[in-house]
Amino acid sequence: MCWRAIDQGASGVDMGRNIFQSSAPLAMLKAVKKVVHENWNARDAFQFWQEEKQGEAK
């Protein structure tokens, strides 16, 4: 969802509930930042989120 908006020309996103109700909110926030500010694609951001949430659970 975030990647699609940026890909279509949005300059940012507004995703409060999707971040804060995530099973790993810090990892989700970091992944969204990668898409918005570092031009990552959805696949790479999802993989990053998967790896980050493992560390967040520890």
Care to describe what's here?
The chain is globular. The protein is built from four helices and no strands. It has one domain. Helix 3 packs antiparallel against helix 4. The protein has 58 residues and is mainly α. The longest helix is centred in the last third of the chain and has 16 residues. It is 71% helix and 0% strand. It starts with a helix and ends with a helix.
Strand content: under 5%
* Number of self-contained structural domains: 1
Distance between the termini: 28 Å
**Morphology:** globular
Helix-strand string: HHHH
Rounded Rg: 11 Å
Averaging pLDDT over every residue, what do you get? 89
Number of strands: 0
Main sheet: strands, sense, barrel: none
- Contiguous low-pLDDT stretches (5 residues minimum) are none
Q: Residue share in helices?
A: over 70%
| Distinct helical segment count | 4
SS content category: mainly alpha
State the gist of this model:
This protein is an all-alpha fold and 58 residues long. It contains four helices and no strands.
Describe how the helices and strands are arranged.
Blueprint: H1 2-7, H2 16-20, H3 25-38, H4 42-57
Helix pairs in contact: 3-4
Keywords: Lyase
GO molecular function: lyase activity
Protein name: Aldolase
Keywords:
single chain, 58 residues, mainly alpha, 0% strand, globular
